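QA checklist item 7 of 12: single-chain prediction sanity check.
[x] sequence parsed
[x] length recorded as 228
[x] structure emitted
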Amino acid sequence: MTTRAKLPASFDPRVVPVTGVDTHLPPVGSASLTPHALRERFRSSVAWEPELRAESAFSERAPSHASVLIPLVMRDVPTVLLTQRTAHLSSHSGQIAFPGGKVDDTDVDAVATALREAEEEVGLDPRYAEVLGTFPHYTTGSAFIVTPVIALISPQAVFQPNPDEVAHVFEVPLAFLMDPANHRRHRLEWEGVRREWYSMPFSSPQAEWFIWGATAGMLRNLYRFLQA
């Protein structure tokens, strides 16, 4: 049986020491981050394996299936759209996340879930999303079995956060997130359970964003996919 040890409510991942930074790994080149190159990569049959598939479990709840949208906004400098969840949510409150949520009975597949949730959370019109594909499941410590859905987003899309679920919507350059020099490793022992995760802190003129946990893990898998 899996040992579960939930971190305390006061836990702050930003103060956990960094155990390593992958400066030895090459970044994904800008030529691989264009819309054409991204489409071709998803059409290719190059073998790859996600680096991260599951987190140490800390929840006793029954597993639930969910989807997230990894929105690659095709601006002159491509970006990744991210959200900060509102503080009152029961799950992952205040954290940086992709638009997404639990599968609904009316959703025909994981893609439908991701697009519906993105429309509900950030007002993304599905007409502006070109779905490239999906990644293998990523299981969170809170017992969500998540299907990441990757899509190119038109720069014409307008985002309007739902204040009930999203405190902020922001974008991070894709090249920054696809450079392992910006991927920090963390490790923590808590009640006999070792937890390890990545963080990708990003500073903008408006704010500092601490991207970590499942969101950083799925971005790390995107890096592995594009480098394969």
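[x] summary fact logged: The domain at 25-227 is CATH 3.90.79.10 (Nucleoside Triphosphate Pyrophosphohydrolase).
[ ] second reviewer sign-off
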